[in-house]
Design goal:
The protein is an alpha/beta fold and 461 residues long. The chain has helices spanning 2-20, 22-27, 51-60, 62-73, 138-149, 169-183, 194-207, 210-217, 235-250, 271-277, 290-304, 310-319, 324-340, 347-357, 367-378, 382-386, 392-408, 413-419, 425-441, 443-455; strands at residues 33-38, 43-48, 76-82, 93-95, 159-162, 189-193, 222-226, 254-259, 281-284. It is built from 20 helices and nine strands. The strands form two sheets. Strands 6-7-8-5-9 form a five-stranded parallel β-sheet, with helices on both faces. 34% of the residues are buried.
Length: 461
């Protein structure tokens, strides 16, 4: 029976490959192996190499998994065995066979099947209550909420949202989809990236099921397509989407499109499509300003239960280049550091994390940058500069580092003292005055400081 069960599993694998396409099969299902089939318990045990594979399959392809196993094994229980974890088997999923004819989930027909549930691919965490409103997104958010709560209306259809990377477009469209599903649970809402849509189209073309592919998309009540600028050279994909768009539009279904540029800047896109993109609501989202970045950070910090000083929050907001992704990436990294190393989140930690998480040519100077440059000039190590030595040259270098940190960062004197040898507030203020006086009276020293400042590539004022 074990051999027969293996043969049945091989049939399942072929179905998975043919249904979701070679790329997704290779990414996920190819890593799933048959472990055993317990006849008495009617339980199939599958082995996966990581928790990630198990969760991705259940999140994205549960309906495909259910259909393949139900039609091959019948009424069985499925147990997962994550081989790299000591916890062993995960809780099983029961697939009960019925007398009804089971239809493959990717081949739903547009007529008579409107109520069939589908996986919307929406991010459940990206909702309106977690979307922070500001000047850069107020119009888009307002229109998006109206569209979500009135999906059958013709106003603002299609809704075309564009803006630079990291400004919150994907969060907004997921919020629209989630709100629509909340108010109208029966609606078939689908979020898909342009790349996945193109991969699905290519697979359908190779399998000779283009009509089924188009028919499925024509059943959607609210279709959200992200990053459509990726279709610039995909003319056949554009043609297929043109037919889907026309059908949805004529039947008052919602179409929401997302791009990193306005329709007028989308050279290479099918002109028929561009005309339709321009016919509805074009909403621009801009990079969030400093205040919005701070508000987003505070919300994220509170959600994660972190304690972050105000000056640190402001520093992160200023260095993130208006990118919400960068803001979230920094906070996620800080959260990991605080848990793994059981340490406080201070400016020194943030400066190190920001250097790794945020890519920019205009990164503000950090205290570590200044310490490093002063140490190079005086041929010292950071540990020596921060140490307790009172030798004149070392003390001068330490005082100069404090002076430059005060001049070129927004960090308060108290924190500068903590970062440079854990000095107290009065010591830092004394250093400021000593360096200021020496710059006035010692021309040679002033020239050295100017050289250090040039090396830091910053300007006076």
């Amino acid at each position: 029976m074990a051999q027969n069960a293996k043969d049945l599993w091989a049939s399942c694998q072929k179905y998975f490959h043919d249904t979701i396409g070679a790329m997704e099969y290779e990414r996920l299902f190819s890593h799933v192996t048959f472990e055993t089939f317990r006849m008495v318990e009617k339980t199939l045990v599958l082995q996966v190499p990581s928790q990630y594979i198990y969760e991705e399959i259940e999140k994205k392809y549960l309906s495909v998994l259910r259909y393949g196993i139900r039609n091959t094994f019948g009424m069985i229980r499925l147990d997962w065995h994550v081989v790299l974890e000591q916890s062993g088997k995960k809780g099983g999923l029961l697939f009960e066979s019925t007398d009804e004819t089971l239809a493959p989930p990717t081949l739903e027909q547009p007529e008579g099947n409107q109520g069939t549930p589908i996986d919307s691919n929406l991010n459940p965490k990206q909702v309106f209550r977690t979307f922070i409103e500001g000047d850069s997104n107020r119009l888009s958010r307002s229109i998006g909420l109206r569209v979500a709560e009135h999906p059958t209306g013709t106003q603002f259809n299609p809704m075309f949202i564009f803006g630079p990377s990291g400004c919150g477009k994907t969060h907004l469209v997921n919020a629209i989809g989630n709100r629509c599903k909340e108010v109208y649970p029966q609606k078939r809402v689908l979020y898909v990236s342009a790349r996945i849509f193109q991969q699905q189209f290519t697979t359908a073309m190779h399998r000779g099921v283009i009509n089924d592919f188009i028919a499925f998309y024509q059943t959607i009540d609210m279709l959200i397509v992200d990053d459509i600028q990726e279709w610039f050279t995909a003319t056949k994909t554009q043609d297929a989407f043109f037919h889907i768009f026309n059908h949805l539009y004529r039947n008052n279904r919602r179409i929401i499109l997302v791009s990193d540029r306005a329709p007028v800047e989308m050279e290479g896109m099918n002109k028929r499509l561009l005309t339709r993109f321009k016919s509805g609501m074009i909403a621009e989202m801009e990079q969030p300003n400093l205040q919005l970045c701070i508000d987003i950070l505070k919300k994220k910090i509170a959600y994660d239960g972190l304690t972050v000083p105000t000056d640190v929050v402001q520093y992160i907001a200023k260095t993130a280049n208006g990118s919400i992704r960068d803001l979230e990436g920094v906070i996620n990294s800080l959260s990991a550091y605080s848990v793994v190393y059981n340490c406080n989140i201070d400016m020194s930690l943030v400066e190190r994390v920001v250097k790794r998480a945020v890519k920019t040519d205009d990164m503000p100077l950090t205290v570590d940058d200044i310490i490093d440059r002063v140490c190079r000039h005086y041929e010292l190590t950071p540990n020596v500069l921060k140490g307790k030595s009172r030798k004149q040259e070392i003390a001068l270098a330490r005082q100069l580092a404090m002076h430059l940190a005060n001049k070129y960062t927004n960090i308060p004197a108290t924190r500068i003292g903590k970062l440079i040898g854990n000095r107290d507030h009065s010591t830092v203020l004394h250093s400021f005055s000593k360096i200021a006086e020496k710059l006035k009276t010692d021309k040679l020293f002033a020239a050295e400081v100017e050289k250090i400042e040039k090396a830091l590539k910053v300007k006076e004022g």
